[in-house]
């Protein structure tokens, strides 16, 4: 009979569950935005999308298995866990499933980004990426398999009460270090390759750096992998249910961060769409303001003359119509002399303002928006790369 341990008692396990499901939720947001961008652009899913979707499903499976084991006491000191929970076969099966799914999630998430780069590269870089894929997947799939076959009989891997033998700890530990080294090397290599690819294209530095940074977020996964490697020995201690907390957390954070990093390059299309909609809204508002402005009187000379006529009319009641007419004529003459523009020029300016159309304003805005673009005759330049990047993402 299994005894469930409350999270209020198992505080270390509670923290583990919070981290796992928080990272699952955040990575799900990035993945969802990535897939939404594909739908928005009416692009079909490619192999990199299927791999990253599989990575998240495996991540959720790992989080679910770990959560179930936390309810059984995982996260506490081994002597605090009820004995019936430790000898229960479910405890060992859930532990194997958690580690198995977490390692496969790492492999699938990094394979996804490597496939994206394959569509942008050629020559020796394509062969190099294929070599990374073979190394990465072979090492990780074997590591995941060892969770189930490292003992004889294999059932002893999840039921330690059975008679039999298992591989020495140093074999599993050393191979885990090797897998971690392969993973970290792949992360840094895949993060640097976009910079090498972009060197071949004639693009402005700001644009080139922006694209390269967006495609190099995997470097954070490499750093996390190195941190995870420092916690591997904790799995082989006498109190592994308590001490393995950092290994479980970092082993889960690594694929979650990789999913986010691999999705960022695809999100640039969504950001561009939102920015374009914002610019269009601003332009429309400006057009409405311009239309309302052109409908108002713009000839200050006429306004001033109206005020003068009003002033002259007031004098007519005091001094008689003769004085008013003379005063009015003198003032109009003075204004005409000091104006500096004849009536024909003023009329032409007003006509030009009134005849300005929405299409001319839009044309000006579009011209300003494209003034910083790269020259259209750059061979192998921005247009070529953006076309390949658009197809790949």
Automatic annotation (TrEMBL):
<feature type="transmembrane region" description="Helical">
    <location>
        <begin position="89"/>
        <end position="107"/>
    </location>
</feature>
<protein>
    <submittedName>
        <fullName>Putative integral membrane protein</fullName>
    </submittedName>
</protein>
<feature type="compositionally biased region" description="Polar residues">
    <location>
        <begin position="280"/>
        <end position="301"/>
    </location>
</feature>
<feature type="transmembrane region" description="Helical">
    <location>
        <begin position="211"/>
        <end position="235"/>
    </location>
</feature>
<feature type="transmembrane region" description="Helical">
    <location>
        <begin position="127"/>
        <end position="149"/>
    </location>
</feature>
<keyword id="KW-1133">Transmembrane helix</keyword>
<feature type="region of interest" description="Disordered">
    <location>
        <begin position="279"/>
        <end position="301"/>
    </location>
</feature>
<feature type="transmembrane region" description="Helical">
    <location>
        <begin position="247"/>
        <end position="267"/>
    </location>
</feature>
<feature type="compositionally biased region" description="Polar residues">
    <location>
        <begin position="336"/>
        <end position="348"/>
    </location>
</feature>
<feature type="region of interest" description="Disordered">
    <location>
        <begin position="333"/>
        <end position="393"/>
    </location>
</feature>
<feature type="transmembrane region" description="Helical">
    <location>
        <begin position="16"/>
        <end position="37"/>
    </location>
</feature>
<feature type="transmembrane region" description="Helical">
    <location>
        <begin position="177"/>
        <end position="199"/>
    </location>
</feature>
<feature type="domain" description="Rhodopsin">
    <location>
        <begin position="33"/>
        <end position="272"/>
    </location>
</feature>
<comment type="similarity">
    <text>Belongs to the SAT4 family.</text>
</comment>
<dbReference type="InterPro" id="IPR049326">
    <property type="entry name" value="Rhodopsin_dom_fungi"/>
</dbReference>
<feature type="transmembrane region" description="Helical">
    <location>
        <begin position="49"/>
        <end position="69"/>
    </location>
</feature>
<dbReference type="Pfam" id="PF20684">
    <property type="entry name" value="Fung_rhodopsin"/>
</dbReference>
<keyword id="KW-0812">Transmembrane</keyword>
<dbReference type="InterPro" id="IPR052337">
    <property type="entry name" value="SAT4-like"/>
</dbReference>
<keyword id="KW-0472">Membrane</keyword>
<dbReference type="GO" id="GO:0016020">
    <property type="term" value="C:membrane"/>
</dbReference>
């Amino acid at each position: 009979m299994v005894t469930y341990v409350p999270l209020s008692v198992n505080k270390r396990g509670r923290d583990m569950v919070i981290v796992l499901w928080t990272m699952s939720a955040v990575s799900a947001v990035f993945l969802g935005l990535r897939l939404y961008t594909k739908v928005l652009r009416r692009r079909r899913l490619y192999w990199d999308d299927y791999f990253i979707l599989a990575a998240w499903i495996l991540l959720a499976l790992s989080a679910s298995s770990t959560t179930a084991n936390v309810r059984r006491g995982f996260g506490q000191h081994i002597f605090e866990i009820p004995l019936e929970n430790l000898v229960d076969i479910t405890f060992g099966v859930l532990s194997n499933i958690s580690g198995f799914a977490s390692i496969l999630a790492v492999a699938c998430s990094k394979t996804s980004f490597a496939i994206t780069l394959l569509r942008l590269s050629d020559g020796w870089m394509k062969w190099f990426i294929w070599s990374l894929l073979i190394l990465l997947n072979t090492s990780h799939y074997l590591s995941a398999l060892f969770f189930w076959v490292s003992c004889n009989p294999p059932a002893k891997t999840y039921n330690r009460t059975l008679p039999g033998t298992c591989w020495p700890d140093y074999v599993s530990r050393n191979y885990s270090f090797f897998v971690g080294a392969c993973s970290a090397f792949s992360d840094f290599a895949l993060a640097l390759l976009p910079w090498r690819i972009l060197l071949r294209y004639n693009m402005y530095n700001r644009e080139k750096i922006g694209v390269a940074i967006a495609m190099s977020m995997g470097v954070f996964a490499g750093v996390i992998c190195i941190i995870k490697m420092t916690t591997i020995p904790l799995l082989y201690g006498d109190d592994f249910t308590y001490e393995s907390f950092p290994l479980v957390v970092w082993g889960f954070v690594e694929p979650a961060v990789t999913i986010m990093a691999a999705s960022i390059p695809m999100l640039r299309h969504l950001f561009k769409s939102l920015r374009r909609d914002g610019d269009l809204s601003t332009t429309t508002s400006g057009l409405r303001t311009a239309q309302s402005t052109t409908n108002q009187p713009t000839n200050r000379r006429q306004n001033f003359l109206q005020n003068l006529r009003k002033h002259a009319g007031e004098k007519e009641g005091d001094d008689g119509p003769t004085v008013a007419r003379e005063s009015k004529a003198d003032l109009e003459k003075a204004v005409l002399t000091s104006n500096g523009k004849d009536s024909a020029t003023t009329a032409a300016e007003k006509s030009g303002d009134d005849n300005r159309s929405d299409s001319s304003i839009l044309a000006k805005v579009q011209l300003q928006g494209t003034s910083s673009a790269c020259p259209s005759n750059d061979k192998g330049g921005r247009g070529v790369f953006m076309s390949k990047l658009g197809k790949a993402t």
